[in-house]
Automatic annotation (TrEMBL):
<dbReference type="Pfam" id="PF01037">
    <property type="entry name" value="AsnC_trans_reg"/>
</dbReference>
<feature type="domain" description="Transcription regulator AsnC/Lrp ligand binding">
    <location>
        <begin position="3"/>
        <end position="46"/>
    </location>
</feature>
<dbReference type="InterPro" id="IPR019887">
    <property type="entry name" value="Tscrpt_reg_AsnC/Lrp_C"/>
</dbReference>
<dbReference type="InterPro" id="IPR011008">
    <property type="entry name" value="Dimeric_a/b-barrel"/>
</dbReference>
<protein>
    <recommendedName>
        <fullName>Transcription regulator AsnC/Lrp ligand binding domain-containing protein</fullName>
    </recommendedName>
</protein>
Amino acid sequence: VDTVTGPYDVIVVVEGETLNDIGGLVTAKIHPTAGISRTVSCLVMEDRK
């Protein structure tokens, strides 16, 4: 979890085997968190190191 400046307050990086796994995590663990009113999900298409 990173606290940032700009249009978003926090960036959370999660990993999952499938999109369903990631969606389930966001729905079950992040959305119910007090103070969370909305989320935006962005997928990494290619990780260049």
